[in-house]
Amino acid sequence: MSSSPLMSLGIKAMQANYASLQVTGHNIANANVAGYSRQQAELATSQGQFTGAGFFGRGVNVVSVTRSHDAFLTREADYARSLAATDSAKLQMLRRLESIFKGGEQGLGHAANEFLGAMTDLTTRPDDLAVRRVVMARAGDLAARFAEAGRSLDDVQAGVTATLRTAVAEVNSLAKAIASANQRIAGLKGLGQPANDLLDERERLISRLSQHVSVSRVEAADGTQAIFIAGGQRLVLGAEAAQLQMLQDPADPTRSAVGLVEGNVRRPLDENSLAGGDIAGLLRFQNKDLVQGRNLVGQLAAAVAGAVNEQQQRGLNLQPPLGQAVSQPLFAVGAPQALPYVANARDASGNPVGSVQLTVTDAGALQASDYELREDPANAGQWTLLRKADGLLRNVADGDEVDGFRISFGNPPPQAGDRFLLQPVARAANDMRRLLDDPRDLAAASPLVATADAGNTGTAQVSSLAITSSPLPVAGATARVSFTSDSGDYDWELVDSANNVLASGSGQWQPGQTIPAPPQDINGFALQLSGVPRSGDLLTVAPTPPAAMASNNGNAVALLALRDSPIVAGRTASESWGLAMADVGVRVQSAASASDISTAVASQAEFSRTSKSGVNLDEEAARLIHFQQSYQAAAKMLQVAQSLFDTLLDAAAP
Amino acid sequence: MRVTTHNAFQTSIANLQKRQQAMVESQAQLTSGKRVLRPSDDPAAAAAAERALAASSRAEVQLRALDASRNAMTLTEAALGDAGELLAQIRERMIAAGNASYSDSDRASLAQAMQALRDDLLAVANRNDGAGRFLFGGQGSDRPPLVDAPGGVVYAGTSGEMRAASGESSPLAIDGRAVWLQAPDPRNPGSTLSLFDTLDRVVGELMTPGRSGPDIAATVRDGLAEIDAGAANLSGWRARAGEALNRIDGIAERLAQGKLDAQRERSEAEDLDMVAAIADFQQRQSGYDAALKTYSMVQRLSLFDYLR
């Protein structure tokens, strides 16, 4: 029996243990490489040799090097990671949005209050130019604060677009890299051994891709993986990679969208079908939270500016000759807009055929929402209006007034199948500015004054006089209200300066009600009484005499009253700002808790994945000793074989 | 379950960062003294603080408006007091003019004195508040509201009352017509008397020479009655001005209290409870400290250290 089998056994054992040591070394070297899968040398016993005395083992062989990998856990970890990326991208943007919705002295609500509060001094000194300058400066501050908020919202939008662009570029380069990894993997498939590090490399690429967009994958027989996004759209197939592209939103050119390009076709990806990844988070933020933020700021801007302008135009300014110059609006805000969808019917030069115009009719009724106008699919020629903030659906026709604005169809009107995005307030804050510069332009005086006759026997006094229309229905006319009973019945007549009766009528006053009681109108005013009138009492509502125009404060009082009036969809300006802050605050809060949860889930999934395929250095240290010892034992075998051979040689020596 | 070195390292780093962040947040609250730094810290409290801020700034400007009204009413009250004294002096002269032993020239010199007092009275009626607003200008007047006209003194202001924007009724200027030209006539209910018409008439009649004793007595008697009615009207208005001043003090007190309440409300909504915050900070600090200690201890353990 020769000693060579023993020698070969030892050599094989040494080789096997050396291979194991090599793999362990590789594991130790890659312990800190993210996505590395722990490898091990697979050993197999060589088949024994038959002799008359039975089978003698022929040692060990290294069959393969395999990696510890679990496809299910890897997918779980990637999916969890893409959900966490969605939530954290959204949260990051919401935090930026939140910084615009400041409270306290830095907030828009306080700026509106300061401006309206400055009217107090105007009520005390209506003819003081210094006071008027202060009011003008506050008005300028307010407009600038709103415009600044609008610009900050544009900055947030620009941030979304820039981040999306980076993400899209990275998705494209990752898709190419995955396709190329696929190609190499398929090329090595024929070798019959797994290309462990290349497979890890591909997993790593897919995992990075999952940060941006949630993927599903299908493994082909040749070892390549096809990658699908957004509910079955093909991103990578074998060695081919499709590309994502930045697009414009189909209706709003300021917003971004993402599309998948295949050949000449660009397919826009819906944010809801994207399921996960930071692209989905950014698009959801842009299309929901940012739109809402914009509308909340815009609604406040449009409502405050609308209410102030309306009241300002009802009063008399200090421009000479007094009482002649018509009071002009104090603020301008961004116009409401109706944006046609890209798919709308277009003429030969590519311009949309049909058009829609919006006009604000009641700034106090404007809602913080975008709207979609489209033809009712079930009823041709019938148009429906969807309020996007709460999903309220209404039928509308040309000329209808909805939520404080009028929808007018252009010429030509919207075509069959057209869709329009209506934004009554979205841009209002951006273009807000003060229109007037001259402090004399502020209308502090009321065009009418009311007096109770000195001979009145009742206790009725004028508590307030509100002007309800501008200009007054009959300029220069005086209204006389004479009570005919002790229970509030009155006759009224409207006379011109030559005492000709222009109109007359009667009514009944009830405590707490105005004279005239709406909807009745005498000459565009509403009179509030304190005390009780007696039969024969007379009240006069006359044009403000020129001598009193500079010192009268009636309109300044009315402007100041806007501070405490429900001018923003039934709320005061500061209440409305408080609610807007709370709205954004709640969004941030829920996004933060969603992000906390999904980050924890992702980290748990990653823990499960790495516990299967990651490297534990203590474990590798143990293996190192283990294989070292085995190697030493194998080496000892060689020594034994060597000494056996020497013994043989010695015995044979002469 | 295998704990992989890389993952364990990453997780501990992430946890350390989280704890550090919590500590920094807690510190930011402590240094700013505010619990609500952003709306998302407590949306409901942020909205409540916003409401309270609006209430406190409203009270602040209303107090400013009230000061203007207090100033105007103080001046009005003083003017009406001065007017009462002038009327008392006029009354003395008029009683003297009724003396049957006086000659025409005695009466004329008394009438001249009365005329001078009457002019003083008109000046009082046209007083302003030092900044150009006439105390008796009513709902607005750019020039002295009581004007000498051919038929007597007329009112050039706008009847009624100008009010300050204090949230409650507080006048800035009162109705000069009612004060000076429309005293209730005691002899003829429902009709009114103009103080200046009476004075002008009495002065005119006393200046007229050669009138009979009974005529002069009638002039003095009617004049005294009318001046007393006018004086009663003035003191009625003076009482109203005084009452307005009292009310203004009450309103000011309420507004100041309201402002304090609003500030307290704001503070309750968004300010930090220091004791709780310090305790919270210390807890976070010791949590972070423990995390750092255990991290360094666990990371130091390695099988390699024993393979020497």
Structure at a glance:
Chain A is built from ten helices and 29 strands. With 654 residues, chain A is α+β, with helices and mostly antiparallel strands.
What does the model show?
The complex is a heterodimer of chains A (654) and B (308). Chain A contains 10 helices and 29 strands. Chain A is α+β, with helices and mostly antiparallel strands. Among the domains of chain A are: 4-68 and 615-652, no CATH class; 289-434, no CATH class; 448-543. In chain A, helix 5 runs antiparallel to helix 6. With 308 residues, chain B is mainly α. Chain B has a two-stranded antiparallel sheet with strand order 1-2. A two-stranded antiparallel ribbon of chain B has the order 3-4. The radius of gyration of chain B is 39 Å and the shape is rod-shaped. At the A-B interface, helix 3, helix 4, strand 22, strand 23 and helix 8 of A face helix 1, helix 2 and strand 3 of B.
CATH topology of one domain in chain B: f41 fragment of flagellin, N-terminal domain
Number of E strands of chain B: 6
Largest sheet of chain A: 5 strands, antiparallel
Question: Between the first and last Cα atoms of chain A, what is the distance in angstroms?
Answer: 21 Å
Principal-axes geometry of chain A comes out as elongated
Low-confidence stretches of chain B: none
Q: What is the mean pLDDT of chain B? A: 90
Strand order of the largest sheet of chain B: 1-2
CATH superfamily of one domain in chain B: f41 fragment of flagellin, N-terminal domain
